[in-house]
Design goal:
- Helix 1 (9-22) crosses helix 3.
- The protein has 2 domains: 7-54; 57-98.
- Helix content is 79%, strand content 0%.
- By secondary structure, the protein is mainly alpha-helical.
Length: 98
């Protein structure tokens, strides 16, 4: 098995910039640069996260994570409530038809 290639941060940023400015697909750029499948997508995702979190203090990051956890909990509760309402409507619509 061949050792993994190591790419510099500058190369990664240049590859991302090339894809964004060229109008070519990610797959086409990966092929031209000899990158493995989805590698450029992974780099783009990582750099997008870094752009968002860049400059935030640790306490701000923790606060954002806590807010995200709370939002996910609320979403799950809302989904459960929706499912209960759907079942209730089905039950009552069966009774009305009979």
């Amino acid at each position: 098995m061949a050792p993994r290639k190591q790419y510099s941060e500058e190369f990664k940023r240049d590859a991302i910039r090339l894809q964004e400015t060229s109008g070519k697909s990610v797959g086409a750029i990966e092929g031209e640069l000899g990158l493995s499948h989805n590698l450029l997508r992974q780099w783009k995702k990582r750099y997008q996260v870094n752009k968002v979190t860049e400059g935030l203090e640790r306490s701000e990051m923790e606060q954002l994570k806590a807010e995200l956890r709370q939002a996910k909990r609320e979403l799950e509760i809302t989904r459960q409530e929706r499912d209960i309402l759907k079942k209730t409507v089905q039950i009552f619509s069966k009774e009305v038809r009979q």
